[in-house]
Amino acid sequence: MTMDSEVTNKLGPDILSYSVEKVMVRNIPQVTPYWQMRHIKELMRIRRLDGVPVTDDEGHLLGIISISDLIICIENKDLEAPVSKYMTTPVKCLILSKTLIEALREMNRFKYGRLPVVDEEFKVIGVVYWWSLFAFLQEALDTSMVVKKTIPSEGVISYTYQVLGRDFVHAGNASLQMRKSLQQLSIDPKDLRRTGIIAYEAEMNIIIHADKGFLQVKINSEKIEVTAEDKGPGISDVSLAMQEGFTTAPDYIREMGFGAGMGLPNIKRNSDIFQIDSRVGVGTKVYSVVNLIRRLK
Amino acid sequence: MLLREVIDSLNLQVISEGNLEVEVRSGIVSDLLSYVMGNAKEGDLWLTIQTHMNVVAVASLCKVAAVIVTSNLEVNEEVIDKAQEEGITILKSSLPSYELSGSLYLSGIR
C-alpha cells in the first residue's frame, strides 16, 4: 500500500508581512455623521457588524461607531440622535501599506475590535475586524484542509477532504477539489456531474448541520463511491429528512439559498446506490455510488 | 443565440468574463441553490439574486452558460475573483428576474 498526502499550505512563513489588504473587509457601508442611530442599529443587525467607520460625503474618515456606542445610545433611549453624537473620534486607523503584524500590534495594544483602513487621501477602503484577522490567521495555521490521496488497493484511487461546519466562506471547496481530481481521469461528463452534485450537497449538509466531517471519493474502473461522514447532531427521522422540502436549517442559512430540504433527495436522485446511516448525537454517514457509463482503463 | 449576442441585445453588464461564444438555449430562474443543482441544464442562463461565493460553485457544477445577477445587486470582489478563476461568466442586469426572463423569452431563449 502506498500513501502520499499533500497538506495545503497556501501562505508560507512570511504571512505576517502581508499587507492589511489581505485581511480587511471591503464593501463596508458608508455611514455619515447625520445618519440616525436607529439606522446604525439596523445596519449592525443586518450586516452582523460590530462597528463601522463614519465618513464625510467624500468618504474621508471622521470616526467610528461601534456596538458599545450603540449600547450607550440605547440606554439613553436616544435612537433618533445623529451618529455624530455617539461616534468615537478621533479614531485610530491603518494605512494600506501597513502589514498584518502591525495591524495585530495596534489592535492588541489598544484593545480595539476593529480598525478602519484608509488610502493616502484618508478615504476609507475597508475595515480590519478582529474576526477577519482571526479567520485569516486560523486559515494560515490550520492544516485541517488536508487532502489525502491514497491507493488502498490495485486499481482503486481514493481522495479524502476535510470539511468544517459553519465555514460558508470555503463551502464547496472540498467538492470542487474532488471534481478537479476526477477531471484528470477520463470520466464521462454526465457521471462527473452527478458525482459533483452528490459531493456538493453532502459537503453543504456537513457545513450547515455538523461540526466537522470528511468527504471521501473512491474510484475504480466501474464506479465512483462517495462517502460523507460527520460528527454532528444526527437525524432523528431519516424518512422525514428524505422528503423534499423538509428542512431544519436556520433562517440565515436559508437566506443564502441553502437548506431548502432538497439536499438529500438531490443526492439520492443522482446516485445508483444510496445509503444513509444516522445516529442522534453522534453523526451521519451518507454513502452513494455512481456507476460509470464508460469503464475506466 | 450566442451568449455574446444575448449580452448585447439585453444590455447586460459583464462582471466576470468566461466563454462568451457559447450557445444559449434555455434558462432557469431560482434563488435556491439545490433547486438549481437539481434542475439546471448545461448551457442554461441562470437568473438569481444570490450573490455569495457558492453561486460560483453551483454555476461551475451545473456548467451554466452564465449567471445573471438581477435587480442590480452588488457582487463582491472575492466572488468575482473566484468566478474569473473558475472561468464562470457573471452578468448583471438592472431588471428584476421576472422582467428579465420575459425579455429573454421574447428574444427566443425558451
TrEMBL record, chain A:
Domain CBS, residue spans: 24-80, 87-143
The keyword Repeat belongs to this UniProt entry's keyword annotation: yes
Domain of life: Bacteria
Enzyme kind, highest EC tier: transferase
Pfam families: CBS, HATPase_c
Keyword list, A-Z: CBS domain, Kinase, Repeat, Transferase
UniProt organism field: Psychracetigena formicireducens
GO molecular function, one term: protein serine/threonine kinase activity
InterPro entries named among the record's database cross-references: CBS_dom, CBS_dom_sf, CBS_domain-containing, HATPase_C_sf, HATPase_dom
Keyword Transferase: yes
Enzyme Commission number(s) of this protein: 2.7.11.1
Protein name: Serine/threonine-protein kinase RsbT
From TrEMBL, chain B:
Domain DRTGG: 10-101
Pfam family, one: DRTGG
Entry superkingdom: Bacteria
The protein's name: DRTGG domain-containing protein
UniProt source species: Psychracetigena formicireducens
